Amino acid sequence: MDVWGPYPVASYSGMRYFALFVDEASRFSTLFLMKERTDVYAKFKFYYERVKTQLKIRMKELRCDNAKELLVLGEKIKRNYGMECSLTVKHTPEQNGVAERMIRTIILRTRCLLEHFGLPKQMWAEAAVTAAYCVNILPNKRNGMQVPYAVWFRVTPA
User: Which residue spans traverse the membrane (predicted)?
Assistant: First the structure.
């Protein structure tokens, strides 16, 4: 997982950041918009409960970088959830390459959506959510051309 932002312009709902959780096996990405970087723990709690109830999966590890708010998140995760939080070495984004690359993909697609449709910059949040959705429903080479959504939810695409 990783946190991206701040976007230079707040969205219409006041968002400036997003937290991105990426499942390494399926490459399914879950994007949460945030007003502040410190909102990340609340987003993790929501994500953790969603995975536990919808998929009946117990998360074992969360990998994130050494950003200040993620250090606090790591301590809370170990204490409250009994799972590992692997922190990368400072200034080595390649150790969290899956999340970093997915953020790049989503940001590039977000910019394309804004530019192509002539949308105001305040719509960056909606464009980012749409970009993440598109990534999840398109086949992924890493998964043998399977759709991340189908792998994550264990369904056959129609």
Answer: none
Question: What span, in angstroms and rounded, lies between the C-alpha atoms of 16 and 101?
Answer: 20
Using DSSP's 3-state secondary structure scheme, residue 91 falls into coil
All structural domains of the chain: 2-153 (3.30.420.10)
Radius of gyration of the chain (CA): 16
71-92 pLDDT, tens digit per residue, is: 878 888 888 888 888 888 888 8
The span from the CA of 53 to the CA of 58, in Å, is: 9
Chain Cα centroid distance, residue 68: 18
Residues ≥6 apart with Cβ < 8 Å to 79: none
